[in-house]
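sorry for the late reply, my laptop died twice this morning and i had to redo everyting from scratch. anyway the thing you sent over, i finally got around to it. pasting the sequence first so we're on the same page, its 205 residues, then the predicted structure underneath. double check i copied it right bc i was rushing
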Amino acid sequence: MTRASTAPTAQRLAAAATDAIRRADWPKAEATLRRLVKLRDAPAEASYNLAQVLLRAGKPEQAGSWLRRAVSLRADYGIAWFELGRWLVEQGEPAEARDCFARATVLLPEDTDGWRNLARLAERLGDPAQARDAWRRIAGAGFAEARVGLMRALLELRDPEGEVLRRALWREPALRPLVLRAVTRSTAGRIALAADGPSAQSPER
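ok and here's the structure:
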């Protein structure tokens, strides 16, 4: 079957899959998309949509391979990189998930969820420099988690800006529990208490 002759078939299958997805008919959508992805030159979107249908059908163990196929077919497929990152987190693969979110944020720089996930994984993997850069991208949007995360990363890097930010955040009563927890974590529990809140500087002996 030539590429030209597969086009009408692909279009019909794509339309049928779209209709099944709209009706939340996951078995029909899965069966149709499985036919579509077998066609030569099937688009990356077909693999991505099949992965999404499998997730909604309660078959997450099968979704990862199709997300991988989607990004292999289209390296600039930002949302597929993001969803692959989420899938890898669920599979307990934080290092590979971080790489996926790093790619996603390059392709979708306005997506705050991508930066948030990247920052969280960088923290989890002990990379405060990457966490700092990721949190900084969304801290200006007013997200409390991002502002406190940025402070924590700066303190762990012993950047003087971290102490300045700590003082500013401490002035907001709603953030004080988060600040206290972050400062305690970044100093392994050794904190100095001052009038403007806990300091990241170790108390004098």
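The first helix runs from residue 3 to 22.
thats about all i looked at so far, will dig more tmrw
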